[in-house]
Amino acid sequence: MTPTAPATAGLTWRALTVEDVPLWHDLVRAMEAVDDPSERYTRDDLTDALTDGSWKNPATDSVVGLDENGVARAFGLVEVRPGDTRTVRAFCWGGVHPQWRGRGLGREVIRWQEERAREKVREARCGVPAYARTHTEDHLTDARHLLEHAGFVATRWFVDLTRRLDADHPVPEVTLDGGLRLVPYDAALAEPLRLAHNESFADHWGSEPRAREDWERYTVGGRDFRPAWSFVVLDGDEVAGYTIASAYEQDWAAQGYTEGWTDLLGVRPAWRRRRIAPALLVASMRAFAADGIERAGLGVDTENGSGALALYTRLGYEPERRSIAYVKDL
User: Fold this and answer.
1) How much is the pTM?
2) For every residue of the chain, which 3-state class applies, written as one string?
3) Which domain holds residue 143?
4) pLDDT in tens, 220-248
5) Is 169 found in the same domain as 104?
6) pLDDT tens-digit readout, 22-49
């Protein structure tokens, strides 16, 4: 059963295609100019969002509203990633052109997304709890009110942190204890890192095991991934911890500074409390600085029980932005 298309006077609704990426990107850029989000999207990013993954089907999992001139005014996507075993998560992303807000389009997009999310959960046939999930930034109060009106609940708060890498903010020394080795990322470690990640994040809110295809496409195979900024701590041949870092250059102009971003930092339970996490972060900081990058950045769940936020603060990271995960049980 196909979800009922949004019904809004003046717009024609259909699924997105790759050929729509330029007009879709114009819409996203118009939203970014007003909303000032932390993440900016390139055309390549949007193409990936539609098609990069065997689990993606834009014909059923996307919608765009076009005005009489063929200009994109609203869109919505729903994605259920492979690998979800404990909870099926239907990730929703969408938006409305600033000039078309206040006409009910946002409500229609969210309604369509929820219907499609429920269908995708049924298709997954996992027999486990499921929810629709979306993220919005703390300062976007209209978006927050819209989600809350649709029954989504603010469930988790996240903070982006940044750390200067100039001479006034020296990178500290961190020494690992005997037997542990810090080495640069190597492609031969891609699969051991995925398995280490799944173990390290098993007790984190909202985390599910990463499937191999997802990991290879979006983590160690993504265009923004920087192997030279990413490191692994080994205990013999065992992966004890790792950091994955990227360069999101499309964000730098709006930020006003260049930044090396730590996408993932994980330490397996048996190796925690051995200074592995700070050693990995410091190694990435030095690599960022060596390439002339001005700041190090990362994001954290403020309710993370591992003490991550306190660690980052001790290392000199400072809060920059806040965002909220909104969830609706399905």
Assistant:
1) 0.93
2) CCCCCCCCCCCEEECCCHHHHHHHHHHHHHHHHHHCCCCCCCHHHHHHHHHCCCCCCHHHHEEEEECCCCCEEEEEEEEECCCCCCCEEEEEEEEECHHHCCCCHHHHHHHHHHHHHHHHHHHHCCCCCEEEEEEEECCCHHHHHHHHHCCCEEEEEEEEEEEECCCCCCCCCCCCCCCEEEEECCHHHHHHHHHHHHHHCCCCCCCCCCCHHHHHHHCCCCCCECHHHCEEEEECCEEEEEEEEECCHHHHHHHCCCEEEEEEEEECHHHCCCCHHHHHHHHHHHHHHHCCCCEEEEEEECCCCCCHHHHHHHCCCEEEEEEEEEEEEC
3) 12-151
4) 999 999 999 999 999 999 999 999 999 99
5) no
6) 999 999 999 999 999 999 999 999 999 9
